Amino acid sequence: MKTFLRLILLMVAWDSLCGPSSYAQRLRITVDQTGKALVVDQRSFDLKAGLNEIAWDGVSTQLDLGSVELRSVDRPGELTVLSQRYDFDLANLQALLDRYVGKTVTLIRRDDEGNESDRLTGVLLSSQGGRVAALQTDGGEIRLNPPGEVILDTRQEALTLEPRLLFRIRARQEGRQTLELSAVTRGIAWAVQYNLFLDGDASRARLASWVSLTNSTNASYDAAYWRVLGEEVRRIDSLQPVDEKVIVEYRPAGLQQPLSLAAGGALRLPLTESPDIIAETRLIFDPIGSGPAAPTPPQKLRRVARFHNDVQHGLGVSIPAGKALLYRSIPPELLSAPFSAQTITEASIPATGVGDYFELSIGEAPGLEGERKQTSFRQVADRVQEQDIEIVLRNNTRELASPIAIEHPWGNYEILQNTHPYAKQPDGSVEFPVDVPSQETVTLTYRARVRY
After folding, report:
1. By C-alpha distance, which of 323, 347, 321 is closest to 34?
2. Which contacts of 53-56 are long-range, i.e. CB under 8 A and separated by 24 or more positions?
3. CA 360, CA 382: separation in Å to the nearest integer?
4. pLDDT tens across 160-179, in order?
5. Distances (CA, A) of 16 to 10, 20, 199, 410, 429
6. For residue range 116-150, what is the model confidence (pLDDT) as tens digits?
7. Which residues share a beta bridge with 85?
C-alpha cells in the first residue's frame, strides 16, 4: 500500500514537471509495472457563468474514483467542483435491474438444446442478486424467482452503455475553457522482455530489450504521450548500510512521440540494444535452502555470469526488472546437425541501476561439488552466539578450479577464525575464494560470532 501511494504521488509529480508547455499534449499517461496508470486528459467545454453539468465520456471501468481530480487549465482557481458521479449502467447488473422495477420486462426460457421454448412478459416487482425475484404477469399472477434470460426494453429507460463521469461544477465566467481530468486506473501495465546472447565461454554478450505496453481496460487512448516508471533498489553506504527504493523513468525510443493504444491492445517498443557486453564468469558454491545449522548434501557447483552495469563493461543504463531468454552458443565439437548452435533458457533480470550488477545462472559445473555443515554452536553471552561452519569442496576434473563459497550469516556478525581469506559483500553475505587443485578436496572452516 505504501509503495502504491509513493508511486501515485511520484506519477503526479512527474506529470507536473512538464510545465505549461505540456498543455499541448492533450492526453498523457504515466504507467508503473504493477498494472496502474495515471491518466491526464484535457478537453474543451463551453461553460456558462454559474452552475454547469458536464459529461466526461470514454473513461475506464477500472478507475480509482477516489483519485479523480478536475481542474481548469485556462483559469486556475475559477472552477469549483460541486459533485462527481460515475455513470455506467452495465457495470452492475443489480443496479441495472433496479432501474426497471415497475416496468415491463421479458424472460426467455430455453430447452435443453438452448433453443427458445417460450417467453414470459410482465412487470418487474423486485430483483435480487442480479436476477428477477418477483414478476407480475399480464394475467395478474406473481411469479417468484422465474427462470429465464432477461430482455430489457431500452425504449422504456435511457441507459448509459459507455462509462462516463458526470460533474456538477460552478464557473466564475462564461466562455470556452480547457479542463483537465486526472485519475488512476488499473488495467494499463508495462513489462520488459530481454534477449541475451552469450558466446561460448560466456565472456561476451549481446543484450536486446523490448517494452510491452498493454491495455486491458475498455477505454482506448488515442495519440497519447506515455511515460513508464519502475523501481530500483540502491544501497546507501553508511555505518549501517541500507537499501533505498528509488523511482526511475525508462525511455523507450518509441515513446518520444504520441502513440495510440486501443482497448484490449498492446504495443511493443525497443528499449535498449547493447551489442558488446563484457561478462564475468564465476564458479560458486551457494547451498540452496541451507539454514545456519542445516547440513547440506553434496551439491554441484554453479556457473554464473555477472554483468556490471557501467560503460566500461558495455552497459551504463538503468535496467528494469524483466524476464529474459538466455541464448548460449554451443562449442562446435558438441554441435550435431541439424540442431541450432544455441541453447535457450529462461531467466529473470532484476532492476539494476548504473554502477550495480546482476547475475544469471548459466548451468552446473560438471565434476565440481560441495557440501556444508555446522560443526558446533555456542551461546557465549546474552544475545551473542558463535557457530563453526565447515565447507568441503571437491574437484573431480583435470584442471584447477577456483570457486567462491558464499555464506549468509544473519544478524550483526564478525568472523573470528577462518582458514581462507574472505570479503564481506554489500548485501551482507561473505565470499570465500578457494583454489581446488585437480582431483583434490579442500576443506574451508570459519567461526562466526553473531549479535542479535
Report:
1. 321
2. 53/166, 53/167, 53/168, 53/169, 54/166, 54/167, 54/169, 54/179, 55/87, 55/164, 55/165, 55/166, 55/167, 56/164, 56/165, 56/166, 56/167, 56/181
3. 41
4. 667 889 999 999 999 999 99
5. 10, 9, 45, 44, 41
6. 899 999 999 999 888 899 999 988 899 999 999 99
7. 166
